[in-house]
Amino acid sequence: MTKHKSQDERRGQILTAAKTCFIRNGYANTRVDDIANEAALSKGGVYFHFKSKRAILDALYEQQRAETMAVVSGVNAANHDPAEQLRALAVGLLLHFNRAEDQRKFLIVLAEMGIRDPDLHQSIRDAHQRYVDALTSQIANGVELGTFRKVDPRQTALLLKMIIDGIEQGLALGYDIDVNALLPAGLDVLLGGLLSRD
């Protein structure tokens, strides 16, 4: 007997299939028929859960954004020491983006669509700003407590976010990055600086 899936399970099945298709074919070259075939559903079954291909992309983006913000929120809630917060955030985000190849590659699809679609572009910019705001708050707190030297919290946060984005892109493009080696080296530079204290 065929087990009937819940609506959430069916939506998840469609989202997984769509992510596979978007990565393999690109968003523009993927049809709803392709997603239906990948999900082993009828086209009508896909439309029952999502009104359009764009609605599927939006749902995938929201899923990605929510998972990433959960990492940021979890770090903020669990750590009170500013240096440990930054360390945990760097580790958490790198491990988050390194955990699944399809997740890394989907970031490239999102970046491509963000260039072409003004609404998605703005949504990605808004999410970027929330990450920078969270980092700014962490750094400003560290400066106020005397843990960090006096730096411009906003500009430092923006720099760190750009570094994280660059690593994410490198992972998505399949660069030979040893995350286990990169983490301690990067954190040493981040928290200690490059200039010798001798």
Question: How would you portray this structure in words?
Answer:
The protein has 198 residues and is mainly α. The protein contains nine helices and no strands. The radius of gyration is 20 Å and the shape is elongated. The model has no long low-confidence stretch (mean pLDDT 86).
What attributes does this structure have?
elongated; Tetracycline Repressor, domain 2; Arc Repressor Mutant, subunit A; 198 residues
Number of helices: 9
Largest sheet: none
Beta strands, count: 0
SSE order: HHHHHHHHH
Question: Quick one: CATH superfamily of the largest domain?
Answer: Tetracycline Repressor, domain 2
The quaternary structure here is single chain
| CATH class call of the largest domain | Mainly Alpha
Low-confidence stretches: none
**Termini gap:** 73 Å
Helix amount, in percent? over 70%
Q: Work out the count of structural domains.
A: 2
Summarize this structure briefly.
The protein has 198 residues and is mainly α. It has helices at residues 7-25, 32-39, 43-49, 53-78, 82-98, 101-116, 118-145, 153-172, 179-192.
List the helices and strands and how they pair.
Blueprint: H1 7-25, H2 32-39, H3 43-49, H4 53-78, H5 82-98, H6 101-116, H7 118-145, H8 153-172, H9 179-192
Helix pairs in contact: 1-2, 1-4, 1-6, 2-3, 4-5, 4-7, 5-7, 5-8, 5-9, 6-7, 6-8, 7-8
